[in-house]
Amino acid sequence: MPVPPLRLGVNVDHVATLRNARGGERPDPVRAALAAIAAGADGITAHLREDRRHIRDADMARLKAEISKPLNFEMAATEDMLRISLATRPHAVCLVPERREELTTEGGLDVVGQHNALAPFIARLNDAGIRVSLFIAADPRQIEMAAKLRAPVIEIHTGGWCDAVVDGHAAKAEAEWQRIVEGARLARNAGLEVHAGHGLDYKTAETIAALPEIAELNIGYFMMGEALFIGLPETVRQMRAAMDRGRRKIVGRP
Length: 254
Prior knowledge:
The protein is of the alpha/beta class.
């Protein structure tokens, strides 16, 4: 079976975080999205949070209107967000857990515990022609429920693995990595498209790119930090190069 190409989705949330620190309109997350696409990004991700701490409603509308690549609308499974997503009509919606007091998304969505509430929510998005992704841990029970809920895509939360790699906790990193490897394989065998994201940098992106089941990586915070030093276009090119190096390692695998 041919290995699918690996797509790079660039998350522009933290451009909006910087803008909102002073108010006004700059730096513009839409301008960042356009620069990322020009440098080779395959899509743009933005998380519209309940408290609007970074991306705003107007940002989502402009992203949909102005970018030439797919828009991945990250959001909590609330009626307000459903209304906005149906009005915006992005290429994809990624459902994520959200707590107002968290600094960033701390874990995967509990689709097992919330399946009764999620089922009609996902159905409405599917009926609208919006591709649904569920941001979940690489846990067999969560993956199996995602398939039952008719979400065509999952995004594996890679934060635990990435944190362990950065902190030098080798045993924990290896255990988390094996969960990702096994989860990606299980999901693909269940007919799901598999994405991954959270905490990825050049090193971990190159590593995970070697998993043939992974079709897309969504990366934001690290790339925006790197962009302060080398510029966003160069950061996108270097991330793309790291992913390509990892993808080439698939050649010759059984």
